[in-house]
Design brief:
The complex is a heterodimer of chains A (98) and B (1434). Chain A is an all-alpha fold. Chain A has helices at residues 3-23, 26-30, 47-61, 67-72, 76-80, 84-96. In chain A, 66% of the residues lie in helices and 0% in strands. In chain B, strand 38 (1101-1108) and strand 39 (1111-1117) form a beta hairpin. In chain B, the strands form twelve sheets. In chain B, strands 30-34-35-36-32-40-43-42-41-39-38-37 form a twelve-stranded antiparallel β-sheet, covered by helices on one side. An eleven-stranded mixed β-sheet of chain B has the order 6-5-7-8-1-9-16-15-10-11-13, with helices on both faces. In chain B, helix 10 (322-336) runs parallel beside helix 11 (354-368) and helix 17 runs parallel beside helix 18 (623-631). Chain B contains 39 helices and 54 strands. The chains are: A mainly alpha (98), B alpha+beta (1434). Chains A and B meet through helix 2, helix 3 and helix 4 of A and helix 15, strand 19 and helix 25 of B.
Chain lengths: 98, 1434
């Protein structure tokens, strides 16, 4: 497994756990979160919850990533279409090219 | 036999069907069971007949050798509310009447008549019903003969039992037998089976039952076809009904040996040894085929012919006769004009008795021909193999089965016929073990039903022909499946069971809602229940193991203000709720602000329509204005003021920018050190706050935050709201707000500026308006404060993020946050989600209205089909009446004397009550041996003998009117047409509890500084009317230091106790309510359908929590209207009376013994628990004690509350509730209306007259009292208005209120119709005790009524010429003289001339039966009791 892939796999696991914490509901534990899971459509994440997720990301990855900056580069439609995989890619990219 | 004249040669069409048979609550299940071969035979349920009667070895007439049969007990649920039948009447009626009524409604619905109408005037009900004993009659036999037999036997066996013990035992036995009394007796009359259907469904053709034993249903079908063929009916509801497993019935069949000893019913099997008894209801809606085609009905099958015969003088009354059966079959096929051999299916009588099967097979061989190897055998079946023998309903079961077989093209199986009868082989038939497609182009069938005593019936039917297959789609499509499964139960285990059963419904705090229930979702739902963790709907599942609102949790509505985006989605809402969507167009902040306010208001109306209620409201920024409006602080006119305040010119005031920050205000602060002019304007939640400041400073703040990797976003608008920068700019807004009139808030309104409820004083409120504009929005703290005040459900009423703010802030605390709007989800879809979420937590939205349930879940009344054994717990003790002694102690001399003392005490008590009732002042005279009136409440100094502190008496004027108390419009006694302009006609009046409040306030003014803690001996005499205002005087008079007698002259008085503090509250009473039952009317219908007449201002009953034989418990919401809370407590008592009594249900408070208060008045919006214990129920009054409990502590205790019951016999209750829908006068079939005075009391008369005459009309007559003296004249007017209303109803008018019709007098004296019905012509006649009226559309009518009295020859000679007298028929000469006279009067009125003092100006020319020709006009006459009525006919 390449470093990038290892980072991706780790990031997916971490994001799954954070999403579960943010949403705080039992069913998310039953529903596997994949790279294809959409934040808006599948998880119905509210914008406030995105903020809470952002906090958790910053807390875990610190200066390695700049989630707000990454988000602010997007149009609203992009944010709505955002998938877990997009975030995983971003994090893995940041970790591979610090 | 020749074909009947006039019959459509193609026959009668079955256009609708419904049934209840064992294991089949409805038609679809029945057909499914028939196809699947479900054996519906079970053991007899113990409540039908007690297992003690089963003894296969006994020959005794009361022991049975079989205990299996077909039973429908599990489906005996009756929707009493839907049919307007009160439960006591329902419990006492024969269950078959009610279940048949319900089934009839289902059959008509199946025919598509739930939505469209049909000619009810030409619709008949003809039902087969055996004259066997029903459950209710059987219970009555026990109550009458059984009870007496019991005590007489006991008296012989146990001579030591005294009359009291025996009396007590008898009463106990009778009470346990069931409900019976004058209110329920009518429900035992057998023909009511048909009549009740005609009555409740308003069918006006023939309505009767007939008995032809087991052939009854098909003989009824034969009658129905004749009705249609003769053209006397256009639609007939027919079929058979049999709900009878009475011991008597079983005994007869056991003694006859007709029951199967093997306990299996096997028609046409060689092992067949008898029947098993079934039961059920099978109904069909028939129309002439040509009419059905014209109306585009779905046709299941066409009845082509019917035949009926009797065996005549044949072998035996008991044995079937082949000759007789053949005759019926041949008649049916001949009347159809068809060849029997063309039948592809015969549904046999098939009783499975050896003699019956043998005879029927021989009949089939003779009629359908012998077996023919060249032809395929037809199919023979009997549904009795599945459901048992349903006796008079058996033919209906067979006919429904055969019709569905033809319709669907499937020939169904017959059970237990593995070894066919030897004679079957010789016939042209075979039986089927499994269903078989029936693909013949012509699907024709015959159905048999043969009865005891030799009555035989046969029906020939066929599938609607190919030419008819291209009809319109069935009109009775099932309503679209609701989009969700909603289940409630007491706990998780029960919920799991309900989930597995898959049927919505149930009650209890443990609830789940599954939206679009896919199998995967249902599996997930199951897991959720098993795990016991709540779900909040993200995956379409809402689940709460114990609803957050069940234990007093409250609902907060949150109204959003302006946010970054505004994309409302109202899709589906306007159509569903009939609420036009607001115009939200326009760009820019001003438009968006206005749009937000309009949208919030719209959604608040939607929420109300959906049955969502707030316990408290709050808003975010300008959303607080919405909260003010919805709390009732302003009326909705304020909307315009707010919108004006949002004019573009008023906005850009401070021109400051906003920055939304993804961090809480507390975290943001330190990072902004040194950035000038930036302030937190909104503290939204843990993870969001908003900064406001000049553009450059905001840009700097954003830079710093982004550096710290904090999300932030500049908002797309500018102003300066919620910062001090706006100071100096707010006057414009405040001007708009100051113009608005403040009203007391109806709901607790919370401020996001102070995080507390709004203050009460107008000045404080207006001061807060300013602060609200200048101070930050402290929404995060507000949410916590609301949670602290009990809010558990937070509902966002608008677009935006408030629900998310709540979830974020309250994470970890028990709460639910939902929004009525969500981006990209239709308005209705999101509303449904929100309602599902709230329902799961214990709210009660109108699930049907929002489309989550097919219809509102309504508690059904489970009818008892059997007569269970009465088992009295030992020892029997007296239940009521004079106190008795425990059995066996009767001889003890000490106890005897004690008993005598108790009896004396009872008598004395009665004396007190009688004296009390007789005293207009309510003062209690002292009675020897009884303590004087209750002392002061605990904690209050007793009455001081010293001089009262203050003046001795006070008198002041009092005016009660709508100016002062506009809410009294919601306490209007008389319903009128919507929009009726004259308030006085609605008779708004003060509830007695408003008077009580006025008495208490007066006492407090009389002794300033002290306050009322109790009021006693309240007695009301006349209504305190509000329009026109009542002007009277209020007098206070000190009785002693603490007690003030207060009197509102002419209306009400009472004694108020004053104190310096409230007494300590005793614990709430734990006394029970007796056996609990269901309150049958759903809460939302209680006010809507007029069970209680109160308008919104007095609609404070939030729920009925328990309903028992001795009282009721409910939850009350404190409302702002003065006296509303105690009035609501009284309403609970009123509902109990309606629930318990089937006549004289209207009860109004007149007296109260004492109300003690243990704390200050609840504020509007507070919820209280109220329990009513009924202490006595008399014919004319009912007395009760009530507790009102707030937060577990007693707030008020009421003893000796007394309601008077108003006479509401006959049509009166309906007319009182819904005067626009019901006639008071009786409608004679010939077209006239009759009003006879049954001796109404003044109070009843007043109620009625106010419904028929406007206030102005009554005043013109000199006031109500004066008008009552002209009773006959009034009756004439009522009869005339009802004649007109009947005419309008028949023309299809929905509601017509009597006041919408005027009856004026022309100069000639002829009455003239004005208002609605103008153009109709009426004639009125009245005599003492009776009035008659006739209304017609064309020509001039004349009507007269006269008492039949001895008429001397002088009268005859004066009134009639000799030629006329020569026409007098034989018989009662006085009656015929009266008829002649009436006829002349009627013609005189019709011509507008009257008799003009010359009765001989008109001449009787001829008499035909009861019709009389008078000078060329035809008059019909009728003897009616002691009178004659005559009316002109055209």
């Amino acid at each position: 497994m390449s470093t990038l892939e290892a980072h991706k796999s780790e990031a997916l696991q971490a994001i799954s756990a954070m999403v579960q914490e943010v949403i705080g509901e039992e069913w998310v534990r039953e529903t596997p979160i994949t790279l294809e899971t959409s934040f808006t459509h599948d998880l119905e994440l509210e914008s406030i919850e995105l903020v809470a997720l952002s906090e958790k990301l910053q807390a875990r990855y610190g200066a390695t990533i700049d989630f707000p900056a990454w988000l602010s580069g997007m149009e609203l439609e992009q944010i709505i279409a955002l998938k877990v995989g997009d975030l995983v890619d971003y994090i893995a990219r940041c970790q591979s090219n610090p | 036999m020749t074909r009947r004249d006039g019959m459509d040669p193609r026959g009668a069409a079955i256009v609708g069907m419904a049934c209840v048979f064992p294991k089949a609550p409805d038609l679809a299940t029945f057909w499914g069971n028939v196809l699947a071969g479900v054996d519906a035979i079970t053991d007899v349920p113990a409540q039908r007949w007690d297992p003690v009667f089963f003894d296969p070895a006994s020959q005794s007439p009361d022991r049975f050798y079989v205990r299996k049969g077909g039973f429908i007990d599990e489906f005996a649920d009756f929707d009493a509310g839907a049919f307007g039948i009160m439960p006591v009447a329902a419990r006492g009626a024969e269950p078959e009447q009610l279940l048949a009524l319900q089934c009839a409604a289902a059959a008509l619905k199946d025919a598509g008549y739930a939505e469209r109408d049909f000619p009810r005037a030409r619709a008949s009900v003809i039902l087969g019903r055996g004259n066997y004993i029903g459950a209710a009659t059987s219970r009555l036999i026990n109550i009458t003969r059984g009870a007496q037999q019991l005590v007489e036997s006991l008296a012989i066996l146990l001579p030591e039992l005294g009359p009291e013990q025996l009396g007590a035992l008898k009463r106990e036995f009778q009470a346990r037998c069931g409900v019976y009394g004058p209110d329920t007796a009518i429900g035992l009359v057998p023909n009511l089976l048909a009549s009740r259907i005609a009555n409740r469904l308003d069918l006006r053709g023939a309505a009767y039952t007939l008995d032809a034993a087991c052939a009854s249903a098909l003989v009824a079908v034969d009658h129905a076809c004749r009705e249609l063929a003769a053209g006397t009916s256009d639609l007939v509801l027919t079929g058979g009904v049999h709900l009878c497993h009475d011991l008597v019935f079983w005994s007869v069949f056991c003694q006859l040996g007709a029951l199967s000893r093997s306990e299996r019913i096997r028609p046409f099997d060689r092992r067949a040894d008898g029947i098993l008894m079934g039961e059920g209801i099978g109904l069909l809606v028939l129309k002439r085929l040509e009419d059905a085609e014209r109306d585009g009905d779905r046709v299941y099958a066409v009845l082509r012919g019917t035949g009926v015969s009797s065996d005549g003088r044949d072998v035996s009354l008991m044995l079937p006769s082949v000759e007789g059966q053949v005759l019926a079959l041949e008649r049916a096929w001949r009347s159809a004009g068809l060849e029997p051999a063309t039948a592809g299916l015969v549904e046999a009588h098939g009783t499975a008795t050896p003699a019956g099967d043998a005879a029927e097979l021989e009949t089939l061989r003779r009629v359908f021909g012998p077996a023919d190897p060249a032809r395929e055998r037809s199919v023979l079946g009997s549904v009795k193999s599945m459901i048992g023998h349903a006796m008079p309903a058996a033919g209906a079961a067979g006919l429904i089965k055969a019709a569905l077989a033809a319709y669907h093209g499937v020939r169904p199986p017959t059970l237990h016929c593995e070894e066919p009868h030897a004679a079957l082989e010789a016939t042209a038939f075979r039986t089927l073990p499994a269903p078989e497609p029936w693909e013949a182009p012509l699907r024709r069938a015959g159905v048999n039903a043969f009865g005891f005593g030799g009555v035989n019936a046969h029906v020939v039917l066929e599938a609607p022909g190919a030419a008819r297959a291209d009809f319109r789609a069935p009109v009775a499509e099932p309503s679209p499946a609701p989009a969700a499964l909603l289940l409630a139960a007491e706990g998780p285990e029960a919920l799991l069971a309900a989930l597995d059963a898959g049927r919505s419904g149930g009650t209890g705090p443990c609830r789940i809602a599954v939206l679009e229930p896919t199998p995967a979702r249902l599996a997930s739902a199951r897991k959720a229940v098993l795990a016991g963790h709540p779900r909040h709907g993200r995956d379409g599942i809402h689940f709460s193991p114990r609803g957050l609102l069940t234990d007093g949790g409250r609902v907060a509505f949150l109204f959003p203000g302006v946010e970054a985006g505004f994309e409302p989605d109202l899709a589906g809402l306007p159509e569903r709720f009939g609420l036009e969507a607001p115009d939200l167009g326009g760009e820019g902040l001003a438009h968006q602000g206005a749009g937000v306010i309009l949208l919030n208001h719209y959604l608040a109306r939607v929420a109300a329509a959906a049955g969502l209620r707030a316990d408290m409201v709050a808003g975010h920024s300008i959303g607080e204005w919405s909260a003010m409006i919805e709390a009732g602080l302003f009326d909705t006119a304020a909307l315009q003021a707010f919108l004006a305040a949002l004019e573009p010119s008023m906005l850009r005031v401070a021109d400051l920018a906003y920055l939304a920050v993804g961090a809480g205000a507390d975290r943001v602060d330190p990072w902004l050190e040194g950035v000038e002019g930036v302030a937190v304007s909104h503290d939204n939640c843990l993870h969001q706050s908003i900064l406001c400041g000049p553009e450059a400073a905001i840009a700097e703040a954003a830079r710093r935050l982004r550096e710290r990797k904090v999300l932030c976003e500049t908002l797309p608008f500018r102003s300066g709201f919620h910062t001090r920068a706006l100071e100096g700019h707010v006057e414009g807004y405040l001007r708009h707000l100051d113009r608005l009139e403040l009203r007391p808030a109806a709901l607790p309104l919370w401020s996001a500026t102070t995080c507390r409820p709004y203050p009460a004083g107008a000045d404080e409120i207006r001061a807060l308006f300013r602060e609200h504009l200048l101070e930050p929005v402290r929404f995060r703290e507000l949410l916590l404060a609301l949670h602290g005040a009990g809010a558990r459900a937070f509902v966002q009423v608008g677009t935006g993020s408030l629900a998310a703010f709540a979830s974020d802030t309250l994470a970890g605390l028990p709460h639910l946050a939902v929004s009525l709007q969500a981006p990209r989800r239709g308005g209705l879809a999101q509303l449904q989600r929100a309602c599902a979420a709230l329902w799961v937590e214990g709210a009660e939205p109108d699930l049907a209205r929002v489309g989550l349930a097919a219809k509102a879940a309504r508690p059904l009344l489970r009818l008892e089909l059997g007569v269970p054994m009465v088992r009295i717990p030992h020892p029997p003790l007296p239940r009521s009446g004079p106190r008795g002694l425990p059995a066996g102690l009767g001889e003890d001399p000490v106890l005897r004397s004690f008993q005598a003392a108790l009896a004396e005490l009872d008598a004395a008590g009665e004396e007190v009550l009688a004296a009390y009732a007789a005293q207009p002042t309510g003062a209690v005279p002292p009675v020897a041996g009884i303590p004087a009136a209750e002392g002061p409440p605990a904690g209050i100094p007793g009455p001081q003998p010293s001089a009262p502190a203050g003046p001795e008496a006070l008198e002041e004027p009092l005016v009660v009117g709508l100016d002062r108390y506009p809410e009294l419009l919601d306490h209007s006694l008389i319903p009128q047409a919507p929009g009726w302009p004259v308030a006085a006609d609605r008779a708004p009046a003060a509830p007695m509890t408003l008077s009580i409040a006025l008495l208490m306030e007066a006492a407090a003014r009389f002794r300033p500084g002290r306050f009322p803690v109790a009021v006693e001996r309240v007695a009301a005499s006349t209504w305190l009317r509000a329009d026109p205002p009542t002007e009277t005087r209020l007098r206070c008079e000190a009785l002693d230091a603490d007690r003030i007698r207060v009197r509102i002259e002419g209306h009400v008085e009472g004694v108020v106790t004053l104190a310096d503090r409230y007494p300590d509250a005793p614990g709430p009473s734990r006394e029970g309510l007796g056996v609990l039952g269901e309150f049958p009317v759903p809460m939302e219908a209680v006010y809507r359908d007029g069970w209680l007449f109160h308008g919104p201002g007095y609609q404070g009953i939030a729920s009925i929590d328990a309903c028992g034989e001795r009282g009721m418990r409910g939850t009350l919401r404190a409302l702002p209207a003065k006296g509303a809370l105690l009035d609501n407590a009284g309403q609970l008592l009123g509902l109990w009376v309606m629930h318990t009594c089937s006549s004289d249900q209207l009860a109004m408070p007149v007296r109260v013994g004492r109300i003690a208060f243990f704390g200050p008045d609840p504020v509007p919006g507070e919820m209280l628990e109220c329990t009513v214990w009924v202490r006595s129920l008399g014919r004319r009054e009912v007395r009760a004690d009530l507790d009102l409990v707030r937060g577990g502590r007693l707030w008020a205790r009421i003893t000796g509350w007394e309601d008077w019951r108003f006479f509401t016999g006959g049509p009166i209750f309906d007319v009182m509730r819904q005067p626009g829908r019901y006639l008071l006068a009786a409608a004679d079939p010939e077209g006239f209306t009759v009003l006879e005075d049954p001796g109404w009391t003044t109070a009843t008369l007043e109620f009625l007259m106010r419904r028929f005459f406007s206030y102005a009309e009554l005043e013109a007559l000199g006031g109500l009292r004066q008008a009552q003296r002209r009773a006959e004249w009034m009756y004439g007017r009522i009869a005339a208005k009802d004649a007109v209303r009947r005419h309008l109803f028949q023309a299809g008018a929905g509601e017509v209120f009597p006041l919408e019709i005027g009856i004026a007098s022309e100069a000639s004296g002829r009455p003239r119709v004005t208002g609605r019905g103008e153009g109709l012509r009426v004639s009125i006649a009245h005599k003492p005790g009776i009035a008659v009226a006739l209304a017609v559309a064309e020509g001039d009518p004349g009507v007269d009524v006269e008492e039949v009295a001895p008429r001397g020859e002088g009268f005859a000679a004066l009134a009639f010429a000799p030629e006329e007298l020569a026409l007098l028929p034989g018989g009662d000469r006085d009656e015929w003289l009266t008829r002649f006279w009436c006829a002349k009067e009627a013609v005189g009125k019709a011509r507008g001339t009257g008799l003009g003092g010359d009765p001989r100006s008109l001449r009787v020319e001829a008499v035909e039966a009861e019709a009389i020709m008078v000078s060329g006009s035809r008059v019909q006459t009728r003897r009616r009791g002691s009178r004659v009525v005559a009316w002109t006919v055209r």
